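RECORD TYPE: inverse folding
INPUT: structure tokens
STRUCTURE:
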């Protein structure tokens, strides 16, 4: 397959993925619906080697993908996804994970989405096996008594130290799944939005009719104590038909490494 054909195929896949994620997480949010073109393209850079990838995303990032989002003037000013073509696990999961970060940023352009919610919904775009691995890490931390209290989790602005990152990812996706099982994706996003602006106690009461953060923590911990099987990841959903696509060139630009 030629480089041009491969780039076009990836652009089409990116646009299908973008549409599906917009429909899931943005819904009919004014100015952020799935049919609204982004004012600036999302650059997707596919690196042939780890060396090329690490030059862009920073040494020590042994991941298959990374995203960069810049906010300015209450809007997303620039967006970029870097992918490693040579990663042993491939970059399909990484693309869905990073595209989720890019999409949800549209709703939180005025005030950055909390770190736990950002990673929680992004992990839900990963494969079921990867989600199971994160939830296994959570179960281990739960048995050791080293999980974060929710008030601690919600206060995290930067990634925690390496020794607590596995717990952070597992707890973030577990809480996201728990809240999504209580209602819709729109309710979840509204919960995060209200919490960001007015606090988690108010968000828990108004969106989920709970007494507050204390009851949310109590119910989530009961949920963790009786885990359920992980459903198939969103990336396995049937792709949208080509007829529903905007021009991929409106959304995605490719840069050769």
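DESIGNED SEQUENCE:
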């Amino acid at each position: 397959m030629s480089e041009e054909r491969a780039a076009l195929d990836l652009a089409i896949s990116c646009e299908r993925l973008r549409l599906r994620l917009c429909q899931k997480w943005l819904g009919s949010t004014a100015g952020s619906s799935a049919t609204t073109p982004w004012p600036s393209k999302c650059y997707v850079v596919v690196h042939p080697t780890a060396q090329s990838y690490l030059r862009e995303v920073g040494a020590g990032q042994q991941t298959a993908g990374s995203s960069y989002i810049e906010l300015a003037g209450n809007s997303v000013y620039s967006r970029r996804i870097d992918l490693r073509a040579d990663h042993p696990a491939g970059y399909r999961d990484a693309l869905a994970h990073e595209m989720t970060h890019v999409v949800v940023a549209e709703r939180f352009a005025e005030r950055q989405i909390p770190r736990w919610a950002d990673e929680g919904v992004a992990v839900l775009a990963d494969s079921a096996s990867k989600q199971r691995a994160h939830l296994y890490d959570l179960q281990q931390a739960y048995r050791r008594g080293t999980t974060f209290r929710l008030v601690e989790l919600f206060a995290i602005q930067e990634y925690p130290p390496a020794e607590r990152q596995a717990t952070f990812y597992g707890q973030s996706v577990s809480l996201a799944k728990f809240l999504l099982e209580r209602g819709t994706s729109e309710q979840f996003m509204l919960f995060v939005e209200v919490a960001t602006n007015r606090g988690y106690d108010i968000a828990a009461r108004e969106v989920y009719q709970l007494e507050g953060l204390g009851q949310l923590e109590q119910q989530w911990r009961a949920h963790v104590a009786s885990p359920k099987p992980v459903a198939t990841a969103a990336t396995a959903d049937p792709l949208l038909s080509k007829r529903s696509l905007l021009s991929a060139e409106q959304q995605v630009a490719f840069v050769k490494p």
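NOTES: The longest helix spans residues 3-25.
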